[in-house]
Amino acid sequence: TVAAFGSFRFVIKGSLAGAAVYMAYDQGLLGSGTQGAEALKKAQAVLPPAIQEWTSYIGWEVRTVQMNTLPPTPKFDFSPSDSWNKGVQTVMSALSVAPTRACEYTVEGWKYVKDLVR
Predict the structure, then answer these.
(1) pTM (two decimals)
(2) What percentage of the chain carries pLDDT values higher than 90?
(3) Which of 46-55, 70-79, 103-112 has the lowest mean pLDDT?
(4) Are 90 and 82 in contact (CB under 8 A)?
(5) Of the candidates 14, 35, 15, 17, which has an alpha carbon nearest to the alpha carbon of residue 26?
(6) CB–CB of 26/39 below 8 Å?
(7) How does DSSP assign the chain, residue by residue?
(8) Residue pLDDT, tens place only, 69-100
(9) Average model confidence (pLDDT) for the chain?
(10) CA dihedral 29, 33, 38, 41 (to 10 degrees)
């Protein structure tokens, strides 16, 4: 019975996923950019009244939001060239001290081996 329940869950989940893909294809979301833009316009026209109706049916209060206004973009103080330069400097610094570090680690390794042999 546990195996049957697991396969039943798999069939249900697969059916829901297939239905979602079919609906996306049927609405034109998987087509060209113009089809996607048309589908977005349809959704923007249909969703707010449907959400308002659903929330009034449940008894929730919803604040209306204007669909055409977007929040301002955050300002980032980020310079790709400075980050790239910092990365290059870090790598070059690590490469320049690599031979010295390798010698230090070799000396430490030999000391450790000598202490083990004694």
Answers:
(1) 0.34
(2) 13
(3) 70-79
(4) no
(5) 35
(6) no
(7) -HHHHHHHHHHHHHHHHHHHHHHHHHTTTTS-HHHHHHHHHHHHHHHHHHHHHHHHHHT-------SS--PPPPP----HHHHHHHHHHHHHHHHHHHHHHHHHHHHHHHHHHHHHH-
(8) 666 766 767 667 677 778 788 888 888 888 89
(9) 79
(10) 90
* 29 Cα distance to chain centroid: 20
The owner of tokens 């833009």 is: 37
Most trustworthy range by pLDDT among 38-52, 78-92, 104-118: 104-118
* Amino acid present at 61: E
Instruction: For residue 110, give the amino acid letter.
Output: W
Dihedral class, residue 70 (left if φ above 0, else alpha if ψ from -120 to 50, else beta): beta
**What is the CB neighbour count within 10 angstroms for residue 71?**
5
